[in-house]
Amino acid sequence: MEVAMEHPYEAGIDAVLGAFFDKQHILFRNEQLGCRNVRIIDLKRDDVTAKVVVERELALKMNVPGILASVNRDWSQIRHEEHWFRKDAGEWHCEFRVRIKGLPVRIRGSMQLQGDASRCTNLVTLDIYCDVPLFGKQIAGVVVDDTRARIHQEYKAIRNLLQ
Q1: Residue 82 pLDDT exceeds 90
Q2: What is the pLDDT of residues 90-106, one digit of tens each?
Q3: What are the extents of the domains in the chain?
Q4: Calpha distance 13→120 (Å, rounded)
């Protein structure tokens, strides 16, 4: 299942990138999402590339089919990796993936941060796959709903940090 979102910011591309890669901002955003045991595994940025890897525990609020109830824990271990590169002065591109330990779900996506010194927009696209026979689409749909809500929460937290 594919999901696309558009997040406009009333801040320039450099300010938004700064928020994306600031250690304290990353910790604050995860706190706002209700995460615990947040660890920044890797955080690098230069003029043309960037990478961030975060591991955390998150309470997933999903109503899953009975077949998956045993793997849907109160707290799930999540690994989130982003690989960024600069396309030009007004655009950065990201490929990311998210792994949820114990769930047969794959989340991959991309982001395009486009703008100038005064404002920018982040175009987010993600694909959520579940290969479980018979229930795959239903499980992916539940994960899509939860993920969409969390991405919106994170977007609001970033906007607040930029004010």
Answers
A1: yes
A2: 999 999 999 988 888 89
A3: 2-162
A4: 6
